[in-house]
Amino acid sequence: MYTTNEEDQRKAAALKARLAEQSATCDGNAGSDPTSSVPAVSMDEGAHKYVLIKASRPKSTEPEYFVVSSRFANYHQDAAEPMVESLERGGYGEIDVTGGGRINLDTSGKKISIYGFSYGFGLADHSISKRVVQADPRYKDFEIDTSNEGY
């Protein structure tokens, strides 16, 4: 199990800095295809690192939230980067990785646990993550619990 290391911390900091710079210079027309839809939830079966990402469509005043966990993410930055790229290609701007933790998706037991924190991105607001996951029809009958404890 990976926790964090200096390289992960540097990559997470670099991603946060790049996104902050883009948000500061955003003209409301970010990305190449503002009609592209990016799914709000992308989770792999099992317990994996996850990030909560906030982004806005061009000319929108309301942010949208995205929850992503991946079995291939050794570090939270590894979960964040592909989704950030999808959001950028989809025309989203003001992208911010607001925090992270872990998600345990148990489809056979219809249970999802959202918990913990990210060393690189900090603690996600798990109540927002829960709300985003609950809104996805694939998980409407799932029991979802949250906790700031654990890693």
TrEMBL record:
Listed GO biological process terms: cell differentiation; sex differentiation
CC per GO annotation: cytosol
Pfam families membership: Ocnus
The entry's keywords: Differentiation, Sexual differentiation
Binding site for substrate: K49
InterPro entries per record: Janus, Janus_sf
Lineage: superkingdom: Eukaryota
Gene Ontology terms, MF aspect: protein histidine phosphatase activity
Catalytic-site annotation from UniProt: H76
Biological function: JanA and janB regulate somatic sex differentiation.
Family to which this protein belongs: Belongs to the janus family.
Listed PANTHER family: BCDNA.GH02250-RELATED, JANUS-A/JANUS-B
Protein name per UniProt: 14 kDa phosphohistidine phosphatase
